[in-house]
Amino acid sequence: MLEPSTKNKPIRIRFGKLIDVLLVSDPGQIQWLNAHANIDRAIDPRASPVHRFVDRRLRDDLGFGGKLLPIFLARGAPQRAERQRALEQRLENLRGAPGPERDRIAAYVSGEGHVDEIGVLVQQWCGRLFFPDYRASRETYAAGRKLAGWPTTLPLRAFRDRVSGRLDHAKDLVAGAASDDLHCIHGTSIGMENVARSVRRLRRAAHSSDRTLSPDEILRHCLRAPPAVLRGCTAEVTTPFLDRPLTPHTLIVLLVARAYQSSGDLDVAFLSDGWSRCPAHEVVPEMLRALWHSAHHDERTPQRLFAKINDWSRQVGRAVS
């Protein structure tokens, strides 16, 4: 785990008990806070008007059948840890199974494939990590994007989408395609959009980056981490990098994308050192590395044919040795 910095202090916006918001972008501070026993996903709507606003966005607007998405479950929620471990193991077992979707995404990254909307294909790849017959469409992708961007949707737009039924329609589309599985719903909406953005960056990098960069270096450059993760305090917390303690009235905003951009640390991007790590913290980076490897070796350059001949020669050599 990274050490929290005392130089890069967070930004704290306070107005009595009415508003107390902490913005944290230092990787070490993020890991320190996320590991603390009194820092949790639970957002108490009674703590402040800001907490109440956030709780409605996460619990009501992004709730399904009265249940929270797994990414919003509190640390002590029943069976949360067990289900997270089971999903992580399931995804781990799928790491060696690329599937036709990944092959088509690789063609897109290398510039050889024509894909009208790469997001649809990425959503289908994400969905088939859960169900082999998952089918994505332009409609399900648009619905997934709406849910992914919902936490930061402007209040007036959010009000219109609630009243008009557009939010409920998007939820129905995503949940129907995911067979109402909450993990799949999350993976094909909030999780999917970060993967789609990463894939688009990989395509650009495949034609503009230094070809001597390793897959890990390209991954660190192209991976899109979640913009922010929210946390609440269940009790007062004294930190080594703040002058005043945090309280149950404090809403903590972990600026994960900014922290990852400054550190390039995958453990920061997926919070994989802590209890709330993303179950896909292995399968997604491996898929992105494989996409880059395909684009790197299949690039349309004068050396491409010679590279393929060398590959074939090595394969023949292994076969007869």
Walk me through the structure.
- There is one protein chain.
- The chain has one domain: Cytochrome P450 (Cytochrome p450, Orthogonal Bundle).
- Helix content is 53%, strand content 7%.
- It has helices spanning 27-35, 49-61, 80-93, 99-110, 118-127, 138-149, 155-164, 166-177, 182-187, 190-208, 215-222, 256-263, 266-269, 283-297, 304-320; strands at residues 11-15, 19-24, 39-40, 229-233, 251-254.
- The protein has a five-stranded mixed beta sheet.
- Helix 6 packs across helix 8 (166-177).
- The radius of gyration is 21 Å and the shape is globular.
- It starts with 10 loop residues before the first strand and ends with a helix.
Return the domain count.
1
Question: In what range is the share of β-strand residues?
Answer: 5-15%
Shape: globular
Number of helices: 15
For the largest beta-sheet, the strand count, sense and barrel status come to: 5 strands, mixed
**Can you tell me the CATH class?**
Mainly Alpha
Helix content: 40-55%
Spans of at least 5 consecutive residues whose pLDDT stays below 50 are 298-321
CATH H-level superfamily title: Cytochrome P450
What CATH architecture would you give?
A: Orthogonal Bundle
The rounded distance between the terminal residues' Cα atoms is: 45 Å
Strand numbers in spatial order across the main sheet = 1-2-5-4-3
Radius of gyration: 21 Å
Element pattern in H and E:
EEHEHHHHHHHHHHEEHHHH
Number of separate strands: 5
| Structure class | alpha+beta
